[in-house]
Amino acid sequence: MSNHKLIALDIDGTLAGTDKTISERNINVLDEAQSKGIKVALVSGRPCYGIWPTARRIHLDKWGGYMLSFNGGKIMDCKNNNCMYEQVLSHSDLSEICKEVAEYGLNAITYADDVLISDNASNKYVQKESSINKMPVCQVDDLVSATDFPTPKCLVVGEPEVLEKVEKDMYKRFPNLSVFRSEPYFLEFMPKGVDKAYSLAVLLDKLNMCPSQLLSCGDGFNDLSMIKYAGMGVAMQNAQQVVKDAANYVCPYTNDEDAVAFVIEKYVL
What we know:
The chain is α/β, with parallel strands linked by helices. Helix content is 36%, strand content 23%.
């Protein structure tokens, strides 16, 4: 057994295959690791509702794993379904975000329990987020008025080449927020300082563990912070190049080839 006591896994593009399913091999290897006392955390841009099916599929409720949703904005203990940590956007932040991105003709999404709230439910990228999380979309005329409660994040959707420019503009416009792309077509707005590495640091502190005991696996832009932070940061073969460049190890297999199982067998078991 290695020194790694916590395994942090991104879902889409990492643990899940292209078809969004979890392979039996990945499940079996994760069960073996958890049976030996290794803790597992799913760290995703998805809301809690969208992570729960995967958490149950890999038995985090049985073994006592964790969900770090909204790219680290919220930490849940899967054993007892308790919230351990949460940060949210203010209503004024949301109002300013929506005002700014509307000038680019872009659409936004916020989250309320088991539904998505959007000003354009028919947008293909809004529908993609709906499909990923198995959450219906509530169409509203005014997103800000409809979201009269704190929300963990605002997701702005659009064509990758447009969001590449908008990301740079919004990063300068909102120095008080975390602004980044989780996918080429998803631009995330989060409370300042919230990212996957920060939330994992919070969890490690609660578990009396240190970064050297953390193994993180990811593929996307929003995985970069936890890849850099972990004692062992692993990029999938299908990862963005910037993630591969930052990783301690680049897995020779993709998310469609049981890459997570291979990594855990190699470095943990």
